[in-house]
């Protein structure tokens, strides 16, 4: 069964336009003008149960808006959503019992009361039986090492401590789907790793479907079997992370450390006709960029055979960060991106409305 | 009822209790207010024995009990709701299987219980010692008054919720909240009893919910309204409580579709 099924989902916002100056303010007083902004533009995707799916994109690409529609907070302008078999915004109270949500930038615990009291309140809100609650809480507390935090008020927790508590809070009622909106934002590497491991375990042991948005691609690499990439409200990639890498990385880089100052011109002559490019990093090192089409051994043979004294060679795959950065940067021309990915994505069904 | 709602009452009560020192000064401020109005009315009455249907003794009691009732039913639900809407944290409330409006009402109720026990009751005792307040002797009046006080709280909270929810429709409803506060104080009869209003305004007030907050219960307490008439004004309160549910639900439904979470 599908955990999440989204068809042609669209969300438009009316944003108030503020005209300039006193006369503008007066005009605004009597006749408001609105800009219509389309944050999510007819996207469709399906997520089967038990999958961990990463949802990435630049700031303002429409990630949070999608999450908010999937969790029943926002009402979509058009399109169909089915999550856990429910239409989120219609049967809200029944629907939310089956999902857990964590917003990295917003606490959902009660600020002034102790952590354990928050959890107790949630138990009552979700009507979890006492013994089941105990069992689950003990397990979660042990996993995330919350032991001594339980009696502290939420406002006295550090960000990392709070985030672990938020995770527990979102899982107390044993939801089958977990939505995480930037769960690792602002956390140090230790806490990040802890949270990733924890999510992996939860997914493996309970079969929890997880959809997470993040700007940290390490989250994606550690957790996700699948990535959905959003740009300007449209899905520009939906598939495996490896595939994303192999499709988008243009090649490898080989770093050479020479015994003496290398002459780039000489190096270019050596590799002439291969289609590689060179750049100088500093006194003794230079980098050769190698498109996938070029054989590594061919290129290396030329350089090594050229008689230059080589101290060290390093072959570097383009990493995900760079790939994604490149996609984001070229993202403004998302038609190009789409073509490149060979995906059939409905393009500009409707031209941008309003001036964004 | 879901026990979570009871818990919300308890938690708000405990939170208020933690900040109880803030309210000690409140008692003094209210006592000063009551004193000022007492001397003012004394001067206005002068030689006269009855004004606007009040004797001076009734007026003193009216002023004292009205202000103390205000100490109980007053809350900041409007501000809380407006700020939660403005900073977007209202979104969190939608992912919980409960009703946001009921949650707010329960929090207000927790605050109300705190205000009743640690603000209104001690305040009233102090005021009774300072000023010539005549308390009703009939137990029936006390019972009726406390029932009406609960409805004062409910109606005032409903008006607060309604004004708070307008934050969904206008970007800044701060001015509206202030206006509402002044209007409620004036039209509910805390500042001046409604029988002192000019004819047309007094008639208008009869058709608005504000009198049900202070004027009606205080009139019962001072003994100006008694017998069947007292039950009739209780009926007026009940009707307003039920009627106000309608606009709240309508606005809430509209708001659901207009929700714009900041920083989307």
Structural description of this entry:
The complex is a heterodimer of chains A (356) and B (264). Chain A is an alpha/beta fold and 356 residues long. Among the domains of chain A are: 2-98 and 175-246, P-loop containing nucleotide triphosphate hydrolases (Rossmann fold, 3-Layer(aba) Sandwich); 250-317, 2-Layer Sandwich (Alpha-Beta Plaits). Chain A has 13 helices and 13 strands. A 6-stranded mixed β-sheet of chain A has the order 5-6-7-3-8-9, sandwiched between helices. A 4-stranded antiparallel β-sheet of chain A has the order 11-12-10-13, covered by helices on one side. Chain A has a 3-stranded antiparallel β-sheet with strand order 2-1-4. In chain A, helix 5 (130-144) runs antiparallel to helix 6 (159-171). With 264 residues, chain B is mostly helical. In chain B, strand 1 and strand 2 (54-55) form a beta hairpin. The interface between A and B is medium-sized, with 33 and 27 residues.
Q: In short, what is this structure?
A:
Chain B: The chain crosses the membrane at residues 21-41, 53-73, 113-135, 141-170, 182-201, 230-252. The complex is a heterodimer of chains A (356) and B (264). With 356 residues, chain A is an alpha/beta fold.
| Oligomeric nature of the chains | heterodimer
The percentage of residues in β strands of chain B lies in under 5%
Instruction: Find the count of extended strands of chain A (DSSP E, 2+ residues).
Output: 13
Helix-strand sequence of chain A: EHEEHEHEHHHEHEHEEHEHEEHEHH
Runs of chain B with pLDDT <50, length 5+?
Answer: none
Rg of chain A: 25 Å
Report the biggest beta sheet of chain A as strand number plus sense, adding barrel if it closes.
6 strands, mixed
Order of helices and strands of chain B: HHEEHHHHHHHHH
InterPro entries (chain A): AAA+_ATPase, ABC_transporter-like_ATP-bd, ABC_transporter_ATP-binding, P-loop_NTPase
Domain ABC transporter (chain A): 24-257
Organism (chain A): Paenibacillus oenotherae
GO molecular function (chain A): ATP binding
């Amino acid at each position: 069964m599908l955990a999440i099924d989204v068809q042609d989902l669209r969300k438009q916002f009316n944003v108030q336009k503020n005209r300039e100056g006193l006369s503008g303010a007066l005009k605004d007083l009597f006749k408001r003008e609105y800009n219509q902004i389309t944050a999510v533009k007819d996207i469709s995707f399906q997520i089967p149960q038990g999958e961990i799916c990463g949802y990435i994109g630049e700031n303002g690409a429409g990630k949070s808006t999608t999450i908010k529609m999937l969790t029943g907070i926002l009402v979509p302008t058009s399109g169909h959503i089915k999550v856990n078999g429910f239409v989120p915004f219609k049967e809200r109270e029944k629907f939310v019992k089956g999902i857990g949500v964590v917003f990295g930038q917003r606490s959902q615990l009660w600020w002034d009361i102790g952590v354990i009291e928050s959890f107790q309140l949630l138990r009552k809100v979700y009507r979890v039986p006492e013994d089941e609650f105990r069992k689950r809480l003990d397990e979660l507390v042990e996993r995330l090492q919350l032991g001594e935090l339980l009696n502290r008020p939420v406002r006295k927790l550090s960000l990392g401590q709070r985030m672990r508590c938020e995770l527990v809070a979102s899982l107390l009622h044993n939801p089958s789907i977990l939505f995480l909106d930037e769960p690792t934002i602002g956390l140090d590497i230790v806490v990040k790793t802890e949270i990733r491991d924890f999510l992996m375990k939860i997914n493996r042991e309970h079969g929890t479907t997880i959809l997470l948005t993040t700007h940290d691609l390490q989250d994606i690499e550690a957790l996700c079997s699948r990535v959905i990439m959003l740009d300007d409200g449209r899905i520009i990639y939906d598939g495996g992370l490896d595939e994303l890498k192999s499709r988008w990385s243009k090649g490898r880089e080989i770093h050479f450390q020479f015994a003496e100052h290398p002459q780039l011109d000489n190096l270019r002559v050596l590799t002439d006709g291969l289609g590689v490019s060179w750049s100088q990093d500093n006194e003794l090192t230079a980098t050769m960029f190698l498109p996938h089409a070029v054989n590594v051994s061919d290129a290396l043979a030329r350089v090594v055979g050229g008689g230059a004294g080589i101290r060290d060679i390093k072959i570097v795959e383009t990493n995900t960060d760079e790939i994604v950065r490149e996609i984001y940067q070229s993202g403004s021309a998302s038609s190009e991106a789409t073509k490149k990915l060979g995906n059939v994505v409905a393009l500009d069904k409707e031209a941008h409305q309003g001036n964004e | 009822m879901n026990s979570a709602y009871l818990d919300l009452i308890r938690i708000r009560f405990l939170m208020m209790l933690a900040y109880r020192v803030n309210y000690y000064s409140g008692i003094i401020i209210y006592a000063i207010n009551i004193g000022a109005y007492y001397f003012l009315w004394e001067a206005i009455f002068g030689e006269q024995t009855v004004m606007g249907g009040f004797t001076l003794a009734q007026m003193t009691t009216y002023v004292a009990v009205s202000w103390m009732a205000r100490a109980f039913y007053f809350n900041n639900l409007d501000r809380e709701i407006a700020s939660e809407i403005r900073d977007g944290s209202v979104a969190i409330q939608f992912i919980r299987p409960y009703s946001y409006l009921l949650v707010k009402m329960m929090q207000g109720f927790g605050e109300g219980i705190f205000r009743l026990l640690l603000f209104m009751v001690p305040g009233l005792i102090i005021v009774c010692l300072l000023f010539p307040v005549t308390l009703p002797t009939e137990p029936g009046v006390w019972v009726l008054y406390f029932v009406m006080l609960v409805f004062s709280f409910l109606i005032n909270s409903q008006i607060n919720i309604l004004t708070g929810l307008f934050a969904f429709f206008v970007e800044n409803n701060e001015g509206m909240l202030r206006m509402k506060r002044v209007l409620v104080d004036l039209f509910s009869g805390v500042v001046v009893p409604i029988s002192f209003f000019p004819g047309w305004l007094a008639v208008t007030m009869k058709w608005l919910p504000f009198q049900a907050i202070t004027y009606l219960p205080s009139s019962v307490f001072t003994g100006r309204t008694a017998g069947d008439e007292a039950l009739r004004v209780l009926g007026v309160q009940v009707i307003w409580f039920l009627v106000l549910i309608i606009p709240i639900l309508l606005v809430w439904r509209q708001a659901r579709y207009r929700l714009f979470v900041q920083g989307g």
